[in-house]
Every structure is written in structure tokens, then in C-alpha cells.
Specification:
Elements (H helix, E strand, L loop, with lengths): L3 H33 L3 H33 L6 H7 L1 H27 L1
Length: 114
């Protein structure tokens, strides 16, 4: 039997690694583009483009977290908002809630139902 929480941990480790890689590649591409086209207009837009791309990646991670919250019926509040603000912290808090519910709450509910 495959452990549900361990599969979530590996899934989000791969997602976070991939999104961080995308963010770093995008940052390098922006730096290279700036050096080849040294325009004052681009410098102004760069301060908007990079945070917007980070927010987009946070939104992608947030959608994955929201989908797993619904699929695994994890009772959490504000994890999506935390993921939108800082991706690794939101994923970590979600995994803590999933682990807590899987290891402590469900066995406790099963004992009280008997």
C-alpha cells in the first residue's frame, strides 16, 4: 500500500523544484535580454515583469494545493492565501495539515466510532 502523505510530499517536492527552476531560468533570460537591449523602458518594465511571473508561479502552485485540499478533504484555512504569498511556506503548511489529519485525526475518529 502506498502511503498517501509520502506521495503528496514527493509530488510537491517535484512541483516546487520545477517551479523554482522555471523562475531561475526566467530571471536569467531577463538579465540576458536586458544586457542585449539596454533600454530605459525595459528597466522600468523589468521591475513589473519579474514579480508578476513569480505571482503566476505561486498561482499555479496554489491551484495544485487547492485541488489536493478538495481531493483529500484536508481541513485547512488560508493555505491557498499563504501559497499565493510564499510558495514553499504554503506547500509546507498544507503538507503539515495533511500529515496531521492522516496520522492523528482519522485514527482518533475511527476509535470513537467503534
Amino acid at each position: 500500500m502506498k502511503d498517501r502523505v509520502f506521495s503528496l510530499i514527493t509530488k510537491y517536492a517535484l512541483i516546487l523544484a520545477g517551479l523554482s527552476l522555471l523562475e531561475n531560468v526566467f530571471s536569467v533570460m531577463l538579465d540576458e535580454f536586458r544586457s542585449s537591449y539596454d533600454l530605459i523602458e525595459f528597466v522600468r518594465w523589468r521591475s513589473i515583469i519579474k514579480p508578476a511571473f513569480t505571482i503566476l508561479l505561486n498561482l499555479v502552485a496554489g491551484v495544485f494545493v487547492l485541488q489536493d485540499i478538495r481531493d483529500h478533504k484536508v481541513k485547512t484555512k488560508y493555505v491557498f492565501v499563504t501559497t499565493m504569498l510564499f510558495r514553499p511556506v504554503g506547500v509546507f503548511v498544507f503538507l503539515l495539515f495533511a500529515l496531521y489529519q492522516d496520522r492523528f485525526v482519522k485514527p482518533l475518529q475511527a476509535r470513537t466510532e467503534e
